Amino acid sequence: MSDPTKAPNRAPTRLKVAVLISGRGSNMEALIDACAQRDFPAEIVTVVSNRPDAKGLDRAREAGLSTQVINHKNFTDRKSFEGALQAHLEASGARLICLAGFMRLLTGQFVEKWRDRMINIHPSLLPAFKGLHTHERVLEAGTRFHGCTVHFVRPEMDDGPIIAQACVPVMPKDDPDSLGARVLAQEHRIYPLALRLVAEGRVTVRSGRALIDSHPPDTALLNPPISA
Ligand code: GRF
What we know:
Layout: E1 15-21, H1 26-35, E2 42-49, H2 56-62, E3 67-69, H3 78-92, E4 96-99, H4 108-113, E5 118-122, H5 134-141, E6 145-152, E7 162-169, H6 176-199, E8 203-206, E9 209-212
Parallel strand pairs: 1-2, 1-4, 2-3, 4-5
Antiparallel strand pairs: 5-6, 6-7, 8-9
Helix pairs in contact: 1-6
Bound molecules: 5-O-phosphono-beta-D-ribofuranosylamine.
């Protein structure tokens, strides 16, 4: 009989994940924390940064993870950078890539190689507000809700089947920082959730949509609420 103190109750096969970052890495931290849970169905086998000064690298090292800097500036073109990236990913045994604030555009060829095996988090309710500075643009547009999205990556920027979204209200006194902080708190919730769903095999991509084996909420959110 096995000794339960020596054999932690890990999920039998955990999906091997590579996390790609370029900066502070707070979403990577959320994934690290999730993967530290005993029953979480994924494990991080490598954290890769294209920037040697990315703050997230320190946190990854503190967590005892294997880290790798592949500095895009050391390569003459995107193809050779991605060649080095691909070689590292293959050597790491990663089966899924999580982009977590990775600020390099990837070629269609690389993206297709990882089709339905690469996910990204974006700070808006896609397909609205693709690109940068989403919080500023949401405030300018005056929408009542904002949010974040985890999606499979496709060659077009911020495009691809949506796995999970969280919605936050836009408050009258919000500035980009306060709104961004509200969104970021939700990013840290839905990225681990999406990774769990993918790792558990509960996400199927069909006709360009991600079908999720779960129950959606059946209530509407109103901003302002009816009682206002
Ligand atoms: C997040 O807002 C994420 O949605 C976007 O880039 C930012 C990265 O932040 N893709 P962090 O490095 O995870 O803190």
